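A protein record in our archive is deliberately plain, so that people and models can read it alike. The tokens are whole numbers drawn from a learned vocabulary of local backbone shapes. For reference, a complete record is included directly beneath this paragraph.
>
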Amino acid sequence: MLRILIALSYVLVSPLAAFAGEKPAVTMFKRPFCGCCEGHADHLRANGYKVTVIQERNMSMIKRRHNVPQQFEGCHTILVDGYIVEGHVPARVIDRLLNERPAIRGISLPGMPMGSPGMGGRKTAPFSIYEISDGAAKVYARE
């Protein structure tokens, strides 16, 4: 009888454990043929995210639609679980955002910094990842 109870509890708990570590789906808007964006999508996939890439020629329209301030614009725009992620933000910072759930619209690593996930070259200094909110510019993370 004990073996049956143990087996039954394993069957009931196993599916829950599989879903506990599952990360939310990511939608990435990027310009067609941008290799660095594909590199960032690969980085996110390697870190457990399911990434849907949408080729978009008019990225400024996407950024305006999601109220991304010009100073925070990155190479591509990601939508994930109610947040905007702008640019080549490392997966562990996105994990932190989704875990902490701060009252902001999103985060940004502006521009295309060398050595960031998906970009070539070497990282020469810590990355400043900013909050996208209605307030003054504020650093969310240094990576």
Remarks:
- DSSP finds four helices and seven strands in the chain.
- Residues 28 and 79 are 7 Å apart (CA to CA).
